[in-house]
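Suppose you are handed a protein chain with no further information: no name, no annotation, nothing but its sequence. What can you learn? This example shows the usual starting point.
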Amino acid sequence: MKFLSKFIAIVFAAGVFFAPARVMRAQTQSMTTVSTSPPGPAFAVDGTNYINSMSAMWPQGSKHTLSAQPVQGTAEGVQYMFSGWSWSGGQLLGNPAIVTADPSITSYQGIFTKQYRLTVMFNNCPDATPCPAPGVVLVNGAPIGSSQTTFVSAGSGALLQAYPNDGYVFAGWLSDTAQTIQGFQTSITMNAPATITAIFAPVQFVNLATVPSGLSVLADRTQVFTPIAMQWGLNTTHSLAPVSPQQDNQGAWWVFNSWSDGGAPTHAYTVPGLASTAVTATYGPGVTVDFFTNPQGLKLTVDGASSWSSYSFVWGIGQTHTVSAPATQTDSKGNIWAFSDWSNGGTRTQNVTVPQSSVGTGMRMVADYTQLGHLTVTSPLSGLSVSVNGSACAVPCDIQQPLGTQITIATPASVPVSAVSRQDFAGWSNGAGTGPLSVTLGTSAVTVAANYHQMNYLATATAPSGAASFSLQPASPDSFYDSQANVTVAVAPLPGFRFQNWSGDLTGSTLSGTLSMSAPRSVQAVFKKVPYIAPGGVSNGAGSTPQSGVAAGSVVSIFGANLADSTALGPASPMAQTLGGLTLQAGGRLLPLFFVSPTQINFQLPDDLQPGVQTVTVSGQGQPDVQASFTIVQDAPGLFPMAVNDQTYAVATHADGTPVTLTAPVQQGETITLYGTGFGPTTPARPFGFAIPDSPSYALNDGVTIQIGSAAPVVPVAAYAVPESVGVDAVQFTLGSDAPSGTTAQLTVTINGQVSNMVLLPIQ
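A reasonable first move is to predict its three-dimensional structure. Written in structure tokens, the prediction is:
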């Protein structure tokens, strides 16, 4: 214990202390960026130079030095002035600035002011020889007496003013950059380095004089009285102009004649390289010339101008001028006047030369006018043209004729505005009705208006087209209505269509509606197609026959609307029972189909259906079924027709199978074959939906006779169902010697007392 106490005392006496052991941890680092604003100047970080920006990983708590040169320039005339270091918390102290790395501070920025070089040039002496300054130039109010270069902050303005010293004049600026020059002053916006030169020129004396002496001239647009010596710079350009006419001290008038340098009356004069020079303006005697109108206050044109405050002039002896009186003009009260003559007997437009004899007396001319009647036709309808005494005149039509003239005005009854609107004549504003207007011109001006009223077109349509008929009340012959009219539109569906709704300018699902015709209107009645069979629409497949019924086993047609969506032709054999999405039923059986279309269906009736009333049902996909009643008879002969030049000819063939035509007619004694359907039952019975086989022969059961013109009836050689066909019948017969020849004969077939339709047979 004594040893421990002694050791502690020695330790305290020696200033030695013991502390707990320290735990070592990894040091935090962060990315720090140093840059400049604006980019471009150089700077240093920890003694290393950079341009624009740098980034480094700095350990937390490490110390770093940021520094920059106070002034930095480039060969291109750009200079940067350093103003200090900044960070997100504000400004840093000093340059160099000492910073301690911290993760919360990620960037430092050196702040610079960008400047552009401005060079002002003048008073350059050769070989550095001193020479007197021709003037002083102020740059933003600071004077300089010789060429000098300075720097101006980017984007700021530099105002330069030039003041010449004695013996010099300021002759303008030369600059390599955009500028605004106003006399001795120019301003530049420093968006780039710039050079500008102030031009000073030595003074030259130019003596201005007049003949006679003592008159005035304009020098640089300023009136000066002669003689006078002007101090102008060598090779500088100035404006010279006469004062003409002018009076001298005695009240005499003088008119400019010429300049001694040969220049135009107003011309640019460049000072020559002489110590002294002179320019003289020569004047000649002037004469007062006055023009008047009768009545007073009307206009005249003198030397091409009509805006003179008065028509009193001073012109030189021998000078020629042009004076013109308008053919017609209107006075302040609206009265119209027509030119009559000049007091000197000259034409309406004439050249006037001032004579020597007018000196002291002057000249005086009067233009005489007579009053016209005035009628103006207007219309609220733009672009209208009316007829005035048979000649077209666009509105507003201005009519100026002698007093008492009779004027007749006619207007078009209707003027198209567009394809769907027009304007119809409604009458004259003075209540004269809708006929031509007659007016007698008097001293008072008259204005009448041709009034029109808007007519708008009502377009009606159905979707699909042709689905209905329209009724419009009130009726219109061309579907145009007054814009104030109300029209009731009603629609009546046609067979095969069911009304759904209106579109366009009518809405709803009722069959009628009312429209205001304040604008062109268009309505469309929308319908849904539904199957429809016309009354008596079930008929012989050969066409219209005297027998209204149809025969079992024959080709039958159904006529109507919207029976199918499209046209489809079925296979020849075996026939289809569904075609184009359509099926037919009769007597509890599906019927074989030849052909379907929206307006016609051809099918075969079963051979075993018994005579009497039967019902056929047409069924289409997505459509309601539609039915029709028809009558089945034993025999309903129909001959197939062939239309030629609006005539119906028989479908027949020669013995060799070629068709009988107008160019290949039948000959007496020739056996031909005639084709049709509905010729009655056969033995054996016809197949249902299948073609007749080549054998055996399917002979007709009932007797057949053929009537050709007025000849005796012909008994066929054979009557049968045509092989390789469905529902087609044929009769073969020989044309007897009693048949007509060299004509087209009428032909019918009679089977069991039933007569077919009539066709024509060409006979040689």
